[in-house]
Amino acid sequence: MKEITVKNLVLGMLGTNCWFLRNPETGELLIADPADSPEQIIQQAAAMEGTPVAILLTHGHYDHMLAAEAVSKRFGIPVYAHEAEQEVLRDAQKNLSAAWSSPYTMEADRTVKEGDVLTLAGYEIRVMHTPGHTKGSVCYYLPEAGVLLSGDILFCESYGRYDFPTSSGRDLVASVKRLLRELPENVKVYPGHNESTEIGYEKRYNPLA
């Protein structure tokens, strides 16, 4: 198993997890779902002595991306999101900012799709399109490190909401079942909210298992 250092900040009005994944060998750092408070994110990167190389968005809801542009600009790094999620990022109604915060829109610099394999920070990152919470929700799987960034699809003993624009309950159930079926039990799951978990644990205790 390849070493990785994982830390998080809980940010914004909805208590969203912003995850930091650092390669101990190179110092390169991935930032996932920069929810809010860009200065806190920048300070955390410095505290980890990391060199940020990319921002990964699991989906386009405002509580996962409000700091993305500021952090991207500060470090000169690209923002990744699923190709179908550009529609959500560009629409303040669909990304929920218009209703829950102040209207805000953005675009990802680079888009991904099911089956893409990224090489970032010295890790292979497999893109798993897991619609349901939004139509362009993705999970990022780092097989060498045994890590899954699950966004708002899979939570500890729970799963994401499916009553938002572009959501689908049927798709969400299928996405959760896919993760539990395809991934090894020892994979650590780092979700968009609440505490981390493992695939094996969710196979036993998740209501959708």
Automatic annotation (TrEMBL):
Keywords: Hydrolase, Metal-binding, Zinc. GO terms for molecular function: hydrolase activity; metal ion binding. It comes from the Bacteria. It holds the Pfam family Lactamase_B. Residues 15-193 form the Metallo-beta-lactamase domain. SUPFAM superfamilies: Metallo-hydrolase/oxidoreductase. Its cofactor is Zn(2+). This is MBL fold metallo-hydrolase.
